[in-house]
Amino acid sequence: MTTIILCNSDTLAIPTIMHLQQTGQLGAVVIPDKSAAFLQNALAQVMIAPDKIYVTSKKQLADTVSTLITNLQAELLLTLTFPWKLPDSILTLPSKGCLNAHFGLLPQYAGADPVFWQLRNGEKQGGITIHVMTSDIDAGPVVCIQEIPLMPLETYGIHCERLGHAMATLFNKLSQSLQHPKQPATPQTPSPALYFSKPGITDLTIQWEQQTADEMIQLVNATNPRYGGAITRFRDIQVSLLEVLPININNPPDRVVPGTIVHIDSTHGIIAACANNTFIRITILQLREGYLSGSKLSQMGWQAGEIFY
Fold first, then answer.
1. Pairing of strands 26-32, 3-7
2. What's the rounded mean pLDDT across residues 230-247?
């Protein structure tokens, strides 16, 4: 089954692309011009031939894809985190249809970057939803769905690696079923959940007075590495937290201001207060000077009593 892939991710897309290449089903890979240099290099590393890769602009998207479907006699089009909506005129061209792999559970997490929002919200399950593409984004009938448990302390990067490999396995099963008479898709049940937009600066910034240790850990994991860590400030400079761990303190101080460093040394690194008198251990930070450990900063003059804000 000749398949055209539209993608804007290496981690999430390449395992499926490699599967299609190995089984002789890969027709073409279409990538957006804004990500071309990065994705061309990533695809070359897994031996995808240059003549299989097509770079397109948003303006040229419809012409590029329709020409490829016709010339390759492609039976299926599959999008993997593609940033642009396909025009309706494309959706009926492949004989097996146009499908979108959404790397989150629908309809609860429709919209941009469900991986971030599921991690940030502390969900126990992530997953992949493959649905028929329609005029409405992330709203088409569901062809198949696979839940993937979120592991404790799992970061954005780790979860995406797991999703990418799970997608290849799921697509292998799906492609076999598509060889038979068309399988019915299940219309999505309307959900009261919000349509999530791409996280902005406010979403990526730590709110020390409001977020508990658990919520802080969720935010930091959701931003690593995709957004470079959770944003805060210290000594009037921006600092990003890349790894924080839960910690219980015996006889914790009362009414400590959230963001305060309550303990710092070369063994434990930095221990800081969060909302509701909870605490985190900060192990990796990014400063202008580079990526530094809490242990190293304890030897560079950072002191207990100073405050993140």
1. parallel
2. 97
